[in-house]
Amino acid sequence: MQAVSTSWKDSQQKTVVPESFIEIELGLIDPAIQENATPSADVVHFSNIGQILEKDLKVAPYVTLEQNLWLLNGEKQILPTDNYGNTGYIGSALSGADGRFDPPPVVSVQLPQLVDVYLPGLTLEWDQAHGDYAVDFDINLYNGEILSDQIEVRENTSVFTPFPRLIKDFDRVDIVIYKWSLPHKRPRISKMLLTIHVLYDTSNIISLSHSQEADILSARLPKTRVRFSVDNVDNSYNPYNARGLAAILMERQELKIRYGYKIGNDIEWIPAATVYLSEWNAPQNGLSVEFEATDILGFLDKTFMKGLYRPGGISLKDLAEEVLLDADLPLVKEEVPWKLHESLDDIYTIAPLPLVRHSECLQMIANAAGCAMYVDREGFLRIEPIAVFSSEDYFRMSGMFHAGQSSILPRSLGTNWKWTDYRVDNFNSYKYPEVKLSKVLQQVDVTVYTYFAESESNEIYKGDIEVNGTETVFIAYTAPAVDVSVSVSGGTLNSVKYYTNACQLTLTGNGSVTIVITGKELKTSETVITIPTGQRGEIQSIKNPLVTDTSQARRLATWARNILINRRQLTLNWRSDPRLDVLDRIYVQNKYRFSPLHVTRLTYDYKGSFKGKVEGRDIG
Fold first, then answer.
1. How far apart are CA 180 and CA 97, in angstroms?
2. 31-193: which CATH number, 1.10.10.60, 2.60.120.260, 1.10.10.10, 3.10.20.90?
3. pLDDT (tens digit per residue) in 527-576
């Protein structure tokens, strides 16, 4: 659940909630060009002009002796004597009484080489800290000393000014500032990005649907999906518009979404999602463009080939990192995009990962660890234990857990809701939740796998492949194997990397190459650990090849049992508060009482205001 102010929470208890807001930022950027650029200009001593090329810079609102800068609103900061921090570009010139500069200051950004491919445009953010901006300015693009393109802007009224147009053949950008929005002010630039950061808000967003799914048992993959439609009356996304944005949209471009409410005179924002563009459609006879985006799991759709049998064992945390590093994921906030719980360091397996997608490998690791897997609103993939409640004599309480660990709280909670501050009741719900009962659980069976190698080598692959020059290929075996060897005829084997289910070969040849692979097949035997419920009903089986330890299997079986004995599965619609997340625990009112609910599926729909749908397991 997202942290919000007390005022936000209080506003949700009113019959009419405050005005709500959505912002969606679509970033189209070439990081290599951006990182190697060098800005220069005449600046004051506390300016740090190099920072204007940083994508996520937050500028400090320092006060100086410029006119009307000492606003007593509690947000300004006194300029320190050194270590100025984040300031961006602050020019040495002051605007005149009419806001004009004489002579106009110039900010020059030199690129390391000629940009000879199309970029989607550029974005300027002026005085982020104080809300000022350039009114009249030019953006000049140079190829050497030759002016190759120019953007003239007059009567600008915005701090954030994107320029969505294709630009090419330049190695320098000059920003010439003629007039500022206020008199007697220094020119300031917080960001200059060789990209387009298109910002959609409630003025042009027609509708939005945001869904989250996660499974407490990691029995299925989590999913975050956002669909939204935007006003396209100006045909910005028409494929026939040569100056439009359609030509530069690509799959997997990052979208950052946030939600807000007007609290007092300000807007309080919370993150909503970090997702990546997957589909878009702009009907020729329509007035809107439709977008769809999914979370970082969309990058984990290739097969993981590098599983290894490790008789000495490997921790599930190290195994997960091995899979994630192989996937080559984009960074989130300039760091690796995953957060793995420390308890995975203490759980080991000897098993090789099978030939499945990277995402499925991570799902198997989460399930074997007794953890849930999900993607948070910042875009980080997380594997961590989730506090689980039992519908018997005790609840489990939220807190710091190791995978499979129990923490209990007496069943009678009364009105003590310390473990959640959110409830859905007759005030904010359209009707009582619908209830569906799962089958009675008799027992949970968890299979423990023991691995052993055959004593004799057998042929596990034979085939011909076409090789022209030097190529690197993966060959999958017909069965998992150890002590593998390869023989090649018709070509040259340059190098080989052996894994348990496949090998990576670098070959040189000119035509058909015959490959024969032999090895000792890796076999398994199975033992089943059973945890009963004391009732007659259905048997739930967990067959995860990473479970190779009997004590861990027993913990998994107990963990799954405590989840699945909660039979009531609820679905409800309500006037949603968008701070709620999947896997949160909340209170829900039914016809007789309040019951705690563990949320497993959540959808927000927005058409001027939020409404939502929740599915989950009643844990009361």
1. 10
2. 2.60.120.260
3. 999 999 999 999 999 999 999 999 999 999 999 999 999 999 999 999 99
